[in-house]
Design goal:
This protein is mainly β. It has a single domain, classed as Pectate Lyase C-like (3 Solenoid), CATH 2.160.20.10. Helices cover 12% and strands 33% of the residues. It is built from five helices and 26 strands. It has helices at 2-18, 21-26, 46-52, 125-128, 320-327; strands spanning 31-35, 61-65, 68-71, 74-76, 83-86, 93-97, 132-134, 139-142, 145-148, 159-161, 166-169, 172-174, 180-182, 186-190, 193-196, 198-203, 206-210, 213-217, 226-231, 240-244, 247-251, 254-259, 265-269, 272-273, 282-283, 295-299. The strands form three sheets. A ten-stranded parallel beta sheet has the order 1-2-5-8-11-14-17-20-23-26, with helices on both faces. It has an eight-stranded parallel beta sheet with strand order 3-6-9-12-15-18-21-24, with no helix packed on it. An eight-stranded parallel beta sheet has the order 4-7-10-13-16-19-22-25. The longest helix is centred in the N-terminal third of the chain and has 17 residues, at 2-18. It is globular. Acts in the modification of cell walls via demethylesterification of cell wall pectin. One of its GO terms (molecular function) is pectinesterase activity. Belongs to the pectinesterase family. Its EC number is 3.1.1.11. It is an enzyme of class 3 (hydrolase).
Length: 341
C-alpha cells in the first residue's frame, strides 16, 4: 500500500508546483467578520461590518452573516473592495428592506455613458431604492438572499452592482419591479434564483447567469405581460446578459426581454422555458425604437415556452462561433474568477 500512496503524493506535489501562485493565493481570506443580530458576533448589522472594512482594502475580508432576517439598507462604497459576503443559506439568511420609487420612474431615464458610483440617484430614483448596493470591484456573495419587500407596483430594487468582477453563488434575489440591477461591470451568477415581474434583471452589465432559476411573480390575471430582462449598452460596448442553462418559470406571462437601448444584447442558451413566455418572445422599449443593432437570441432552449415560430422577426440567429463567444466563460473572465475565494 505504501507505493501507491507515495505515487499519489508525488503527483499532488507536482500539481501544486505547476498551479499558478495567484490561484493559490485566491482562496485565502485575511480576516473574517461575523454578523449576528442576536449579539453572538462582532456586529449586529451588515452595514456596521462593511464599515469596519478599511478604505482602500486590498485583502479578502469575509463578512459571515449568521442565520436570520436583517432589515437594513446596505451600501458598499467603491473604496471597500475584496469583500466576501456569506450567509447560512439563501433560505436561512436574508437582507431586506422596502425602499421604493414614489411615482412612475422607469429604469434608466437617462442613459449612462460612464461608470457612475455614489450618485446614481441623480440619474433615477430607481437606483436609490436598492436594499443592497455594491459600488466596489471584487465582490463575492454566497448562500444569502437579497429582498426588496415593497408590495406596490413602483420600481423597488433588491440588489444593485456597478462595480467590476462580482461573483454570486447560490444566492437569491426577490422583488417585483427591477429586482436585480446588473448595472455595470463583469459579473458571474451560478445557481442563483431571481424573482420578479417587470424588468427584473436590468442594466448595462456584461454577465453570465449559469444554471440560474428565473421566477415570474406576475399575477396570472394581468393582461400586460412582464419582461424578464431590460438590457442596454453604455461604456462597455461588449456588454450582454447571457443565460446559460437554468430555467424560466413562475406565474403570469413574460417577454424574455425588452431593449433598454438600441444596442441591447441578451442571449438565452439551453434554458428551459415554461409556457409563461409569450410567443413573440421579445419587445421594443417604444414602438418607434430602431432594433437593427439589438441582439436578442435563443439557442438550444427547451420547454413549452421555447417555441420560436411566433418570435419577433428581428430576433437574431447566430452561427456556432457567435454562440460560443457569448457562452464561453472567457466572455467575462480574463482570470479574475480564479483569483476570488
Amino acid at each position: 500500500m505504501r507505493a501507491p500512496f507515495c505515487l499519489l503524493l508525488i503527483v499532488g506535489v507536482l500539481l501544486l508546483l505547476r498551479w499558478p501562485a495567484s490561484s493559490l493565493a485566491s482562496v485565502q481570506v485575511a480576516r473574517t467578520i461575523t454578523v449576528d443580530q442576536r449579539g453572538g458576533g462582532d456586529y449586529t448589522t451588515v452595514q456596521s461590518a462593511v464599515d469596519a472594512v478599511p478604505d482602500g482594502n486590498s485583502q479578502w475580508v469575509k463578512i459571515y452573516v449568521k442565520q436570520g432576517s436583517y432589515r437594513e439598507k446596505v451600501i458598499i462604497p467603491s473604496d471597500k473592495g475584496f469583500i466576501l459576503l456569506e450567509g447560512d443559506g439563501s433560505s436561512s439568511t436574508d437582507i431586506n428592506f422596502d425602499s421604493h420609487v414614489d411615482g412612475a420612474d422607469a429604469p434608466g431615464i437617462a442613459p449612462i455613458t460612464g461608470r457612475l458610483r455614489g450618485n446614481l440617484a441623480e440619474i433615477s430614483q430607481t437606483y436609490n431604492s436598492s436594499t443592497f448596493t455594491v459600488h466596489s470591484d471584487n465582490f463575492v456573495a454566497r448562500n444569502i438572499t437579497f429582498k426588496n419587500t415593497y408590495t406596490g407596483n413602483n420600481p423597488a430594487v433588491a440588489f444593485l452592482m456597478d462595480g467590476d468582477k462580482g461573483a454570486f453563488y447560490d444566492c437569491a434575489f426577490h422583488g417585483y419591479q427591477d429586482t436585480l440591477s446588473d448595472l455595470a461591470g463583469r459579473h458571474y451568477f451560478r445557481r442563483c434564483l431571481v424573482e420578479g415581474a417587470v424588468d427584473f434583471i436590468f442594466g448595462y452589465g456584461r454577465s453570465i447567469y449559469q444554471d440560474c432559476t428565473l421566477v415570474s411573480n406576475m399575477a396570472a390575471s394581468s393582461q400586460q405581460p412582464g419582461w424578464v430582462t431590460a438590457h442596454g449598452r453604455a461604456a462597455d460596448k461588449s456588454a450582454a446578459f447571457v443565460f446559460k442553462g437554468g430555467s424560466i418559470t413562475g406565474s403570469g406571462r413574460q417577454y424574455l426581454g425588452r431593449a433598454w437601448n438600441e444596442q441591447a444584447t441578451v442571449v438565452f442558451y439551453q434554458v428551459n422555458m415554461a409556457s409563461i413566455v409569450v410567443p413573440q418572445g421579445w419587445a421594443k422599449w417604444t414602438s418607434t425604437q430602431h432594433v437593427s443593432q439589438v441582439t436578442f437570441a435563443e439557442v438550444g432552449c427547451s420547454g413549452p415556452g421555447s417555441a420560436t415560430g411566433g418570435r419577433v422577426p428581428w430576433e437574431k440567429h447566430m452561427d456556432n462561433a457567435e454562440v460560443q463567444r457569448f457562452v464561453d466563460i472567457g466572455f467575462i473572465d480574463d482570470g479574475w474568477l480564479s483569483n476570488q475565494p
